[in-house]
Amino acid sequence: MRPEVALPILIPLLAGSFSLVVWRSVVLQRWIAVLGTGALLYVSVWLLMTTHREGHVVMEMGNWPAPFGIVFVADLLGAIMVVLTGIMGFAVALYSLATTGKGHEKFGYFPLMHLLLAGVAGAFLTGDIFNMFVWFEVMLIASFALLILGGERAQMEGAIKYVTLNLISSMIFLTAIGLLYGLVGTLNMADIAYKLQEVEEPGLVTVIGMLFMISFGVKAGAFPLFFWLPASYHTPPVAVSALFAGLLTKVGVYALFRVFTLIFNQDVEFTHNILLWGAALTMLTGVLGAAAQFEFRRILSFHIISQIGYMIMGVALYTPLAIVGGVFYIMHHIIVKTNLFLVAGVAYRLLGSYELKDLGGLYRKRPFLGVLFLIPALSLAGLPPLSGFFAKFVIIRAGLEAEEWVVTGIALLVGLLTLYSMIKIWAEAFWKAVPEHNQNAHRLESQDTQLWLMYTPIIGLALCTLFIGLYGQPIYELAAASAEQLIDPSQYIEAVLGVQP
Amino acid sequence: MEPLLAIVVGASYAAGLYMMLRRSLVKLVIGIILFSNAANLLFFTSAGLTRGAPPLVPEGMLGPEGAVADPLPQALVLTAIVIAFGVLAFAVVLIHRAYEVVKADDLDQMKDTDT
């Protein structure tokens, strides 16, 4: 029994059920939200320390030996992702204490949040491909419900697109699992990787790989499958947007990392080349979409897409250094992106709008908020010495070493355009004077005590960004150790099945 | 049996996709139903069909005798059906609510949040 592998899933599930039990008491639900996500953060750090010490941690459900039962496996990548889930869950839980409306809390905001975290953690930790599908669905149904809580017109329109495209992606995922099962007769990912080495039909394997790529590409928001993301992410309350922005697309990226290093590494020339060009176009279209927007959260939503491109570039180059870069980029990006959404929420609280033309004067009245915005914004754009610089640096260096000049050039250009978008937000929302037509300008002067509750997670995440940037060596070494495990799947197979491939 | 099922699966995928590409909300949901059922059937077919051989263990034995049907795809498809059903119930409620809010069954009326 290895409880630390199961606990990151069990704790949010339990916290969610307890929140349902105390359905009538919002106060108790709030306490459970903070305690539950805090406990999740604690056990996820425990899991990371164990995996760092011992390599892979495997837990077999019901004591059925590996290829027959469902296994939960934590390697370093999975553990890192779970720690990030814990950090995000805790930050967003604190933040939503101050921002979530009464109606949302009454209709199950907190139970759904726990369910979402459970689904995300389950997808990161499972070692069984069908089980991953099930966790994806758990996560999706929670996110559907969170997205439409409130029931405004924009939310409905966004939800239709979000639900349809994610369901199609799930069905393609199921199709791919079915074909894979027909081919190798097993669902355990380590066993699939082991048995695929002996399968004689490389063409069919590549087709299945492409199906997985499409399905995870939709979830990750990769080009050309990202249109649901900017259509829906700016419609729910800001705490929900922040949680989605930090975690949901990264589950797709994680799945790409897992599947395209462990299972589909036969025809790297073909599959990873498609991934590489997909990554380049994802970066470019995302950043160009952001440049055209004038709404705070829409700009940030498009930037999720452009940054996903860098992460996919990490797995697509498929060199040790590139995978280090990809993992490092995920760590940096989840923290930074959630933080930017949280800052957008504070701006909304103060001035009552997300439209850049209605915002202004934030720096003059709230200089501290300006600093808190600049830390993640400049980190996203990749300015040294913040975390984004090192993440981009590693990826671009890997691109140069692999001699992929065009893609690397695009990555550099996209960094520049990201800076443009961030400066646009800075100039409009923080620098210019408050526009005359904004009725809420007086709120900039007022002393809103709940603001401190909103500031706390923002400060915490900004400190994380600074820590990764200024004291990055241990984090980099963690990413390097994780990449070493990913590039050599035989470790994973041996840890799960106990055989040497 | 397999060729027939293969044709059914292909036709369901095609019909589901066609329905989803129409402009109506209701047809969108019908398309999703067809699509998910096609995926389930495909899973079932590709795992191999064995007729009239339930995987039962005779008394006093440790394993089933002879060639038996693989019980795993049946269990998995059952899970997939349940999930698809739950999601579908959600989708039906969602389009009802969306229809109430937007007052149209037309997907082209729902472009406010795009771009």
UniProtKB/TrEMBL annotation, chain A:
Keyword Transmembrane helix: yes
Ranges of residues in domain NADH:quinone oxidoreductase/Mrp antiporter transmembrane: 127-416
Topology of the protein relative to the lipid bilayer: Multi-pass membrane protein
UniProt GO MF annotations: NADH dehydrogenase (ubiquinone) activity; oxidoreductase activity
One GO CC annotation: plasma membrane
GO biological process: ATP synthesis coupled electron transport
InterPro entries listed in its UniProt record: CPA3_Na-H_Antiporter_D (IPR050586), NADH_UbQ_OxRdtase (IPR003918), ND/Mrp_TM (IPR001750)
Keyword terms: Cell membrane, Membrane, Oxidoreductase, Transmembrane, Transmembrane helix
Compartment(s) where it occurs, according to its Swiss-Prot or TrEMBL record: Cell membrane; Membrane
Pfam families recorded: Proton_antipo_M
EC number: 1.6.99.5
TM region positions: 6-23, 30-49, 69-95, 107-126, 132-150, 162-184, 204-229, 241-263, 275-296, 308-332, 338-356, 368-390, 410-431, 452-472
Family the UniProt entry places it in: Belongs to the CPA3 antiporters (TC 2.A.63) subunit D family.
Name under which the protein is recorded: Multisubunit sodium/proton antiporter, MrpD subunit
Organism: Alkalilimnicola ehrlichii (strain ATCC BAA-1101 / DSM 17681 / MLHE-1)
From TrEMBL, chain B:
Cited Gene3D superfamilies: 1.10.287.3510
Annotated GO CC locations: plasma membrane
Pfam families reported for this sequence: Oxidored_q2 (PF00420)
Entry keywords, A to Z: Cell membrane, Membrane, Transmembrane, Transmembrane helix
Membrane spanning residue stretches: 6-21, 28-52, 72-95
InterPro entries: CPA3_antiporter_subunitC, NUOK/Mnh_C1-like
Keyword Cell membrane: yes
Membrane topology: Multi-pass membrane protein
Keyword Repressor: no
Places the protein is found: Cell membrane
Family, as annotated: Belongs to the CPA3 antiporters (TC 2.A.63) subunit C family.
Protein name in UniProt: Multisubunit sodium/proton antiporter, MrpC subunit
Organism whose genome encodes this protein: Alkalilimnicola ehrlichii (strain ATCC BAA-1101 / DSM 17681 / MLHE-1)
Organism ancestry: Bacteria, Pseudomonadati, Pseudomonadota, Gammaproteobacteria, Chromatiales
